[in-house]
Amino acid sequence: MRALLQRVTEARVGLVGDGGAAEDLAAIGRGLVVLVCTEKQDGEDAAAYFARKIANLRVFEDDRGKTNLSIRDVAGEALVVSQFTLAADWKKGNRPGFSGAADPETAERLYMKLVDNLRAEGVAVQTGKFRSHMRIHLVNDGPFTLWMQSD
User: Fold this and answer.
1) pLDDT digits 0-9 by tens, 22-44
2) Which one, 2, 95, 113, 148, has least CB within 10 Å?
3) Residue 151 pLDDT > 90, yes or no?
């Protein structure tokens, strides 16, 4: 599993329609945008591990300006969006390959398992729409961006 986390002051995701306009799906205030990619070797244990880590990562500032607070500590929200392109193999040629990504059925199941586990950890979660063309608008706070990879 791979995830790109961005600490944000606000974010929203919209579904791109036929005319190119984006219809709003979800929005959050202070929290994390979590772009998630499940890979072929991933199982439910990866979804549980990532959810636990995301819920407990101390990436928000306390009153002294130190990153000592988790998303739960600040009552933040998570906007979780599936993004298979994080599995890109870009080393050979100029067209990235995505053969390392899980098949769509497995990916959706594990994506939803991650979302469910995050909610069970006490995090308010909004989501994008799986296998859809979306637009994400966000205000990165810091900027503060983390890469997570299970292997």
Assistant:
1) 788 999 999 999 999 999 999 99
2) 95
3) no
The whole-angstrom separation of Cα 105 and Cα 93 is 28
Q: Name the least confident of 15-29, 75-89, 122-136.
A: 15-29
Q: Which residues are catalytic?
A: 83-85
DSSP character string of 111-131:
HHHHHHHHHHTT-EEEE--TT
Strands 60-61 and 22-28, by their bridges, are: unpaired
The total number of structural domains in the chain stands at 1
Angle among Cα 139, 145, 149 to the nearest 5 degrees reads 135
Domain that holds residue 44: 2-149
Find all residues with CB under 8 Å of 93, minimum gap 6, and list them. Answer: none
Preceding omega of 143 cis (within 30 degrees of 0): yes
pLDDT at 18 over 80: no
Residue with tokens 């959050």: 28
The domain that holds 74 is classified in CATH as: 3.50.80.10
Assigned token pair, 145: 């961006």
Instruction: Check: CB of residue 108 under 8 Å from CB of residue 131.
Output: yes
